[in-house]
Automatic annotation (TrEMBL):
Keyword list, A-Z: Transferase
Annotated Pro residues bias: 75-93
Name by which UniProt lists this protein: Putative acetyltransferase
Superkingdom of the organism of origin: Bacteria
SUPFAM superfamilies from the UniProt entry: Acyl-CoA N-acyltransferases (Nat) (SSF55729)
Residues of the N-acetyltransferase domain: 5-205
Example GO molecular function: acyltransferase activity, transferring groups other than amino-acyl groups
Annotated region (Disordered), positions in chain: 72-118, 184-206
InterPro entries: Acyl_CoA_acyltransferase (IPR016181), GNAT_dom (IPR000182)
Pfam families according to UniProt: Acetyltransf_7
Compositionally biased tracts (Low complexity): 94-106
Native source organism of the sequence: Streptomyces clavuligerus
Compositional bias annotation for Basic and acidic residues: 109-118
Amino acid sequence: MITGTRIRTAGESDFAGLLELAAEVEHWFGPMVAEPGFHRALRTHLGRSTALVAETADGALVGGLLFAPAADSPGPGPAPGPGSAPVPGPAAVPGPDGARGPAVPVDRPSPDRESAEGPVHHVDWLVISERARGTGVGRALLARALERFAPAPATVEVITFGADHPGAVTSGARVFYERLGFTPGPAADPGPEGGSRQLYRLRRTG
């Protein structure tokens, strides 16, 4: 990572910095910065202490992650949609360390909170600033989230590009998650731009 970068829990004072990170990837995933639903999602995670940020020695935010532990995940039935979603998703993160990743709030699969592999958690949003892409920040954010929120045994899910989506190769999102042990699952609802999405799962056994 960039020398002096640390991973920490995000607070309300990081709200503006997280919006700046979102602004860097709106050209990929559509508007977020001006979306009230996205603002509510960020504040929900900040209030629950389920948002992490990567901060450089000079105080700049170069990465952010929103994680939904099983206790905060929606129960059976459809998840809240845009404008009312408690979390934004999907997280589509490219590059060998998770370069870019968010989309505006969308529905996500709502599996049972418990499975044979333990509780089911969700990565809702993961984004890395352009200056920090390729430095390991994305991997470090996800590792901290798993350590803190998803001790084994557990299942962690994330929605990313489908295999036929143009961004699947360009972004490197699927490769990023596969290198961290996630495996492809069923198709998810299309993204706001109409492109395909797919669920990825990580089984944590110990």
